[in-house]
UniProtKB/TrEMBL annotation:
Ranges of residues in domain NIF system FeS cluster assembly NifU N-terminal: 10-130
Protein name per Swiss-Prot or TrEMBL: Nitrogen fixation protein NifU
Domain of life the protein comes from: Bacteria
InterPro entries given in the database record: NIF_FeS_clus_asmbl_NifU_N (IPR002871)
Annotated signal peptide: none
Gene3D superfamilies tied to this protein: 3.90.1010.10
GO molecular function: iron ion binding; iron-sulfur cluster binding
Organism: Ureibacillus manganicus DSM 26584
Length: 147
C-alpha cells in the first residue's frame, strides 16, 4: 500500500471515530471519574472507568474538542476495555512513545487496533497534546483509584 493510500486510510479511521464515537457517555456513580482539559486548544474530556479489581471492565468518555482528541478518546476506550490495569498503562506508554515518533514493535501496534491511525500525529507537535489527553486521563484514573 502506498504512503498516500495508507495516509488516507488513517484519516478515514480518525474521522470515523470522530463522527461515530465508540463508548460515548458516562457510567454510574460507582465509577472512577476523571475530568481533564487541554488549555492550549480547549479540548476537554470527562472519562469514566468501571474497574473490577485489576480489570478495566468498561470505559466511557464525553467532552468536546478537535477530531484528533475525540477520536483518540474513542479509540482508547476501545483499546483498554477488558484489559487489566497494567496492560492499559502499557498501552498508554506505547501510545506516548508513538506520539514522540519512537519506533514501536509492529505486534504492539496491531494490538492497539485503530489507535495505529494516530501515528501521523507525531509529525504535528501542536496536536500531540490533543491526541494524548484521553490517555493521560486514563492513566490518572487508574493510578489514583484506591485498590
Amino acid at each position: 500500500m502506498s504512503f498516500n493510500n495508507l495516509d488516507q486510510l488513517y484519516r478515514s479511521v480518525i474521522m470515523d471515530h470522530y463522527k461515530k464515537p465508540r463508548n460515548k457517555g458516562s457510567l454510574d456513580e460507582n465509577s472512577v471519574t476523571i475530568d481533564m482539559n487541554n488549555p492550549t486548544c480547549g479540548d476537554r474530556i470527562h472519562l469514566t472507568l468501571k474497574l473490577n479489581g485489576e480489570i478495566v471492565e468498561d470505559a466511557r468518555f464525553d467532552g468536546e474538542g478537535c477530531s484528533i482528541s475525540m477520536s483518540s478518546a474513542s479509540m482508547m476506550t476501545e483499546a483498554i476495555k477488558g484489559k487489566d490495569i497494567n496492560e492499559a498503562l502499557n498501552y498508554a506508554d506505547v501510545f506516548s512513545k508513538m506520539m514522540l515518533g519512537e519506533d514501536i514493535d509492529e505486534d504492539i501496534i496491531d494490538e492497539l487496533g485503530d489507535v495505529a491511525a494516530l501515528q501521523g500525529v507525531a509529525k504535528f507537535p501542536a496536536r500531540i497534546k490533543c491526541a494524548t489527553l484521553a490517555w493521560k486521563a486514563m492513566e490518572k484514573g487508574v493510578k489514583e483509584e484506591p485498590k
